[in-house]
Amino acid sequence: MNGSSLYSDPLFGVCVTVVAYAVALLVRKRVPRLHPLITAPVLVYGFLQLGRIDYSNYKVGGDMVTFFLGPATVALAIPLYKQAVRLKPLLPSLLLGAFVGSALGIGVNALCVIAFGGTEELLRSSLPKSVTAAVSVELSRWLGGSPEFTAALTVMTGLFGSVAGPVLLKLVGVHDRVAASIAIGAAAHGIGSARLLADSQEEGGVSGFSMAACAVFTPVLLLPIHWFLL
After folding, report:
1. Contact 130, 187 (CB under 8 A)
2. Confidence (pTM)
3. Distance CA 170, CA 4 (A)
4. What is the pLDDT of residues 8-62, one digit of tens each?
5. How many CB atoms within 10 Å of residue 92?
């Protein structure tokens, strides 16, 4: 098998992604604040550049990994199910928090793009970036934006929310764990929820519920914007 056929094999992209993430986990043991989803893409990019490997070849296998993003997101419902009885009395607060989070996410995204003179394509691509990538990419396509750019924005939003979210919430005086978890789920979606889940089943469950609720509220809130843009 020559180099060209090796690189175009789907297993190549899968192996590169898995190895990069494994190395990123090892790096995190030494540098706890360095998130694997920051380190792994840098390693993949460096490997492709050093090997002069075309991104389209890597993408064949990389897309296979991306496919499992949907099932992985759905799997966050497991801690929610385990905490269902405990969280049932909080349902009105959870729904209200997720709705407000969705509305603020769309509003702040739009204001930032308009304030800094962004293009219409940037506006269409950035509006859905505060929901999980499996949803935001499809919403971006529906709005006429760039799904690839939206995916990048969504991951960066999740990473920032995962790393800085808990600290920022404490700085502004949000100390209630349920309220903080709702905010993280609404703003940092799956990445933030997975971060909370590593520390607490309850917080991960609340954050997962908030993320799922936002995935329902956001398309509804984007409907009038979609009609206006078209």
Report:
1. yes
2. 0.71
3. 51
4. 677 787 888 889 889 988 998 888 777 787 888 889 889 888 888 887 777 777 6
5. 8
Q: Report the C-alpha gap between 209 and 81 in whole angstroms.
A: 10
State phi, psi for 92 to the nearest 5 degrees: -60, -45
Average pLDDT over residues 157-171: 83
The encoded tokens of residue 193 equal 């929820």
Residues near 107 by Cβ (< 8 Å), separated by ≥ 6?
A: none
What phi-psi label fits residue 85: left (phi over 0), alpha (psi between -120 and 50 degrees) or beta? Answer: alpha
Task: Give the dihedral sign, CA 155/160/166/169.
Answer: negative
What mean pLDDT comes out for the span 62-80?
67
- Residue 50 buriedness (CB in 10 A; 0-12 / 13-18 / 19+): exposed
Between CA 145 and CA 139 the distance in angstroms is 8
Tokens 């509003």 sit on residue: 107
CB 92 within 8 A of CB 100: no
